[in-house]
Design a protein that fits this description.
- With 224 residues, the protein is α/β, with parallel strands linked by helices.
- It has a single domain (2-223), classed as 3-Layer(bba) Sandwich (Glucose Oxidase, domain 1), CATH 3.50.30.50.
- It has 5 helices and 13 strands.
- The protein has helices spanning 93-96, 100-103, 123-128, 135-141, 163-173; strands spanning 2-5, 24-29, 39-43, 51-53, 74-75, 78-82, 90-91, 108-112, 132-133, 149-152, 185-188, 199-206, 214-223.
- The strands form 3 sheets. Strands 1, 4, 5, 6, 8, 10, 11, 12 and 13 form a 9-stranded mixed sheet that branches. It has a two-stranded antiparallel ribbon with strand order 2-3. A two-stranded parallel ribbon has the order 7-9.
- α4 (135-141) runs parallel beside α5.
Amino acid sequence: MKRLVLSYPLSITTPVYKDNPPVEIRQQFSINKGDLFNQFFINTINHNGTHIDGPWHFNPQGKKLSELPIDNFIFTRMKTLDIPKSDDELITKEDLEPFANRIAGSDLLLIRTGFGKIRDSDSVRYGNRNPGFSASAAQYLMIFESLRAIGFDFISASAAQTLDEGIAFHQIVAGTGRKDGRFLLIIEDMNLNCDLSGLNIVYAVPLFIEGIDSSFSTVFAEKR
């Protein structure tokens, strides 16, 4: 069994979305400076780096991540869609429709656009010209009852230059206004630059912090 890490470590060089504040990491105590132990301050918003958007991020009646059962973050029926997109381009219903048979029955959809390849080399472009999803994509994805989460290789489901569409996408998949409680988790800024064939199980478990909408996650998979 092989294991793959599908998330990025959080660091001071982590790309940020638009004008979000960067990650700050400061050492408080240092063995090298004569202290008995190492200890750090970490200052960051909860949407920097690989993280999971919970329903409460855009749905005032939605649950916070720490309120969801742990089974919500374990997936066994993954499908990967390669949908090439570049700066500012949106993933639409029309992009997804040819994959209907692959989406049906899946619980986690991994969407690889190729945009993640510039994350290390051009973090400003990665955070300001990212692809995103349209409202039509959200409406289409919510049709598939088995689907519980989507993850992708760009910084946010909202294209930085097309915020209206991104906001609508987030609201729809967060289940805003629905009476059945249905929602999709969104795993943003994933590392999908690897062979994703043969995945058996994916764990996308957030850091449980009470009282917040979304949280950081180390995502890893087991494959044959």
